[in-house]
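Model it.
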Amino acid sequence: MVSKIQILKFKNAIINQPHMKSLIFFLFFLILIIPLFVFAYLGLVPGLSHLLGADKPTDLGITYTQLDLFQAELATQIDRV
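Modeled.
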């Protein structure tokens, strides 16, 4: 039977290996940091969203004409009152 002391020594031996520390850091990065930046980019983290510039609208340079409106009304067959 394996004692608790042997189990703890085994866990410490595994965690103290250099590649295991980098794996733990990598998992921390994946689990916490990446979703944080994704939520910030989507505008859900106010301070970080401002730093990323995700809270400012972007001018795409698209302009519409009266002809575009008329063609859209014809294509969708929606009567506007």
